């Protein structure tokens, strides 16, 4: 920095007490700005952590709901008997946000910005679509699994309901 420029910004006549107050004010503003930076980083990391935790909770709720639905469905198949179902996920739910594309002008670079909408909490990004979690596999344990017909019916029902290929569905006899 050029000290002459800084000197030109300062008032020409400051008494000893006046210059002390001026510099204390400048120092105070600097400390406020510098002190706010780590706080904003902590807030962003807390928001990211909360978002990740919410996504994890949504995935767990999705698995519980799917397991309950499959258990009820398989239990209603003739010959299946008592049933337990476990679902594992390969990836959690994914949200895609709407973007606004602007032309970069002469340099030809395009810029993308999230489209924001007003909500009761302030502003949030506009959700374009949400992808359901990807299912890794489904395990079914039931009393009637040793019957080939029941086994086939369960496999087909689970595959049709979830879209999971039959080689990712395991059916075992309950002990």
Structure description:
This protein has 175 residues and is of the alpha+beta class. The chain has three helices and nine strands. The protein has helices spanning 3-9, 16-75, 148-162; strands spanning 83-91, 94-97, 99-102, 111-114, 116-119, 122-125, 127-131, 134-142, 169-173. A three-stranded mixed sheet has the order 1-8-9, covered by helices on one side. A two-stranded antiparallel sheet has the order 2-7. The chain has a two-stranded antiparallel ribbon with strand order 3-4. The radius of gyration is 31 Å and the shape is elongated. The N and C termini lie far apart (80 Å).
Which short descriptors sum up this protein?
3 helices; 175 residues; two-stranded antiparallel sheet; 27% strand; alpha+beta; three-stranded mixed β-sheet; elongated; single chain
